[in-house]
Design brief:
The protein is α+β, with helices and mostly antiparallel strands. 22% of the residues lie in helices and 25% in strands. It contains eight helices and 14 strands. The chain has helices at 8-11, 25-39, 82-86, 97-103, 120-126, 156-167, 203-219, 228-232; strands at residues 48-56, 65-72, 130-134, 139-144, 177-182, 190-191, 236-238, 241-245, 249-254, 264-269, 272-277, 280-285, 296-300, 303-309. Strands 1, 2, 3, 4, 5 and 6 form a six-stranded antiparallel sheet that branches. The protein has a five-stranded antiparallel sheet with strand order 7-8-9-14-13, with no helix packed on it. It has a three-stranded antiparallel sheet with strand order 10-11-12, with no helix packed on it. α6 packs across α7. The radius of gyration is 24 Å and the shape is elongated.
Length: 323
Amino acid sequence: MAEESQSPEERLKYLRDRGVTIETPEDRASSKSLAEQLSKLKTGDKGTTTFTFVKIPHDTTKPLSEEKATIYSDERCHGDQLPALLASRFSHGTVNKTALKEATPKGLGGDVQNLPELDPNHINSMGGSTEAFRLADDVFLYLDEVGALKQLPINKRASDIVAQCGYGTGVSISGDTYIGRITTSFPIRNLDFNLEDMSQGAAWLTRAAQQNLARQSQEGGRPGGISAEELSTRGGTADGYEWKQDESEVEITFTSNNTTKADVKVSFHPKKLDVKIKNENFTLQLYSFVTPDECTWQLSDGKLVVTLEKREEGQTWPALVES
């Protein structure tokens, strides 16, 4: 089929090569119709239920916010409703022709010079497109499915969360995003996800990396991620120390040489470590909780080695300190 005769829907097949799932026009029309119905519902309407979700603006000067959605409480709203509800929020912007060309495999021609850009009017007519990006078994990140091709600003906070959930630092998230929760058994329903769930110690986040990496292993992995084995022993380096971990402990080796016992003062707290070595002071706000009474320190080859006992055994720390 000549490129000039392709429909807008057919042109969107180019986006599939960036991992984007494109709905059929019929599927999209059905979702859009239901979303329009849901947009007219109000909290407390008969036969409805309300759930919360969180918005993460790409602009880091803007705070996270909690939003509510009202849906039917019967089978009409079985399944995750956020993709349809959020689609209209992703109807703005223009797909960049250069970005689209770079994303188009040469086997499909690669030349989009004669293809009109997907302008805002067309995207609005499609109702926008939402990608549901799995963060954990029951938690998903919702973003503009073609945000990268629109060259939307990078959302650093959302990208950091994706990295913490086991995808590594190679996945960049663009534009405003949202996080929501669903049930893990059928029928799938939307559940509350609150601002409190965004804390570093939230239960879902402490489990996310293991859950996600187990699924990656089953599905053959994901570019930019790291293996479960790598993550379970993940460590790193920083100015003045290096660290590593296993299922139950985190070990931190401070790089100052020729350290003696008289040079050292260590204080353990549930989520903080204070260390003084000679004239250097370290205050580390830890990624997760430890059991202070079971933490220890020792000198090894003239260096201070601190061992932290994880409060939750088996939990993987994506980082030593809070971001």
